[in-house]
Fold:
Amino acid sequence: MLDPFEKLILKELQRNGRASTQTLSDAVGLSASPCWRRVKRLEEEGYITRYAAIVDGKKLGLRALAHIQVSLVGYDASSIREFQNFIDTNEQVLECSSITGDFDYILKVAATDPESLEQFIMHRLLRLKVVKTTTTTFILRQMKISGALPVEV
Structure:
């Protein structure tokens, strides 16, 4: 179980992953050494899996975002492994979740424009021998982008 200080540390690091130990300790009400030890423990125990920068996709020219629902042809280990390998190695795929319903997975994909998204679907995703069908929904506008998980204090 996490104590209230550890929960505060997680909340603060989700707001500012570059916070110094001193800034973090001031924000949560601990001195620097105990705060640093708690951060290290949270990293070692897997509560903190990595640190990353949130980048503005529009500045990179990524103006087309879509959710793509995917159904696989089969569910044997090699088909799932091939699909997983594609997801793991393709930078355009921002997220992939296994889902319930008529489809097996939902992907969040970034592209420079609708045409390049079409190229991704037609020439990469559908050419996988394991993908049976897809349905694409364009994201018109993102009203909230967080990535931070709720941490109760």
